[in-house]
Amino acid sequence: MAAPQPKRKRADTAGVAQPAPTANKHLQAILSLPDATIAGLLLHAAGQHPDVAANIAAAVERVTAQNDAHAESARVIDFDHYSKTAWRAINLQYKSMKGSYQYNASCGVQDDVVGCIEDIRKQCPAGVSYGTKKSALETLRKIGKTVCLSGGDVIGHEVQKGFHMETCLEDTMGTLGGRMEELVELSKGHCVFETLDEVVALLEGTKGEPRTSEDSDDDEEGSENESEE
Asked: What is the pTM of this model?
């Protein structure tokens, strides 16, 4: 005659097996102890059993990662100073130089502008807070507008030419998400950021906050330019 099969644990109404009575008893006993006593028992168990020590280390790592992710999602970084840095590099830093000297300096200015964009990208990993993402997109929009509107002298013209092929701005904006229709129209007139319209098309229809009059008010660049000079 076949041996009888062991009985299954009785499941609750949700279909989840209930803990054994002994486990419940241990849990109640542990929860009744002071925190210092529990810590002492865990410390002793970790010293006697490597598997317990490994479980404790894994739990600490997991909780630390969760706390770090929460802190990162709540942190807001202000990137506005990068737009001012880019504007000064293009419009002010070499303004008093003759055309030939400006031409020689233009590659360095191009690198400075690209460096601002790359710094923003590096500080916006996945899971970055909405406030940080919003500041990054607004700053990138300002940098792009500066490039588009600064073609009146040698440095501005050369920087525009550099962005005929350089796509770091639209790549970064595409990663972050955003609405950039105005910048697309400006870029078309200056043959820069040539794939920006593809980024906008990709982002079209994504969820976002409604635009306000404040979002579309770009007069601050003009006033900023005057104050810088």
From this structure: 0.56
